[in-house]
UniProtKB/TrEMBL annotation:
Residues 102-168 form the Mechanosensitive ion channel MscS domain. Its main location: membrane. Pfam families: MS_channel_1st (PF21088), MS_channel_1st_1 (PF05552), MS_channel_2nd (PF00924), MS_channel_3rd (PF21082). Mechanosensitive channel that participates in the regulation of osmotic pressure changes within the cell, opening in response to stretch forces in the membrane lipid bilayer, without the need for other proteins. Contributes to normal resistance to hypoosmotic shock. Forms an ion channel of 1.0 nanosiemens conductance with a slight preference for anions. This is Small-conductance mechanosensitive channel. Residues 176-256 form the Mechanosensitive ion channel MscS C-terminal domain.
Length: 268
């Protein structure tokens, strides 16, 4: 028993140091979350500052606090900050090569916040991936698709890809196409579409609605429609107008042809 007590007493300082380190780590992690949340709320409360900057600033504060917590934990185990800096300085090349992707994402994150090609809440397409911007932090951009799927996109890929921002402008042009039979009156069909567009309060008068014959297809005369509306009304207008034009065509005897084939048999 005496030997066991002596052996355990030798581990006492190590156990105490581990307990202190664990306490500092837990408290530091909680403090990082609380302080970063306060920064986010404070910045986002200002109407002159975009919410994207608030989230990004909160992310910087959180990681800075966690870095200080890591240094404090290492100090508890007797590793001085100066020694840590010296070791990291000697291993800069290796760390840079190992983390070049992460460092690239970090640099791209600053560029995205500086130039702001997209903001929180906007619907964008980045490198062929579409969704609403939910978060932009130091390392990645989070998108949410219309069917509520989360997409995590590294900032390095986002900055180097083609970005299409569907929410940047306040208005959008809604393009529609309708095919009518060759035997129908094209002017009548165009008047029907224009009347429906002018009667819809979501369609802007300037630029005015545009309807033209754009193509003579194999089995239909194709009408192109261009309507300007608020960006928020784009999809609802597109779906509603498609339905209303179909019903109006049916009511006025304008037929929408469908592809058909004619079989010709050669007499033997």
């Amino acid at each position: 028993m005496q030997d066991i007590i002596e052996q355990l007493s030798g581990y006492g300082p190590m156990i105490i140091s581990a307990a202190k380190a664990l306490a500092v780590l837990i408290i530091g992690w909680m403090a990082a979350g609380i302080i970063s949340g306060m920064v986010r709320r404070r910045v986002n409360a200002s109407r002159r500052i975009d919410n994207t900057i608030g989230n990004f600033a909160a992310s910087i504060v959180k990681w800075a606090i966690l870095a200080m917590v890591l240094v404090a934990v290492l100090g508890i185990f007797g590793i001085q900050a100066t020694s840590l800096v010296a070791v990291m300085g000697a291993a800069t090349l290796a760390i840079g090569l190992a983390l070049q992707g992460t460092l690239s994402d970090l640099a791209a994150g600053f560029m995205l916040v500086l130039f702001r090609p997209y903001k929180l809440g906007q619907y964008v397409e980045i490198g062929g991936t579409s969704g609403t911007v939910v978060d932009l932090n130091l390392f990645f951009t989070e998108l949410s698709t219309p069917d509520n799927v989360q997409i995590i996109l590294p900032n390095g890929q986002a900055w180097g890809a083609v970005i299409r921002n569907f929410s940047h402008h306040a208005t959008r042009r809604c393009d529609l196409s309708f095919g009518i039979d060759y035997g129908d009156d094209a002017d009548q069909a165009m008047r029907i579409i224009l009347d429906l567009a002018n009667a819809d309060s979501r369609v802007h008068a300037d630029p005015e609605p545009w309807v033209r014959v754009v193509n003579l297809g194999d089995s239909s005369v194709d009408l192109g429609v261009r309507l300007w509306c608020d960006a928020a009304d784009y999809w609802a207008l597109k779906f509603d107008m498609t339905k209303e034009v179909k019903e109006a065509f049916d009511k006025n005897g304008v037929s929408i042809p469908y592809p058909h084939q004619v079989e010709i048999q050669k007499a033997g």
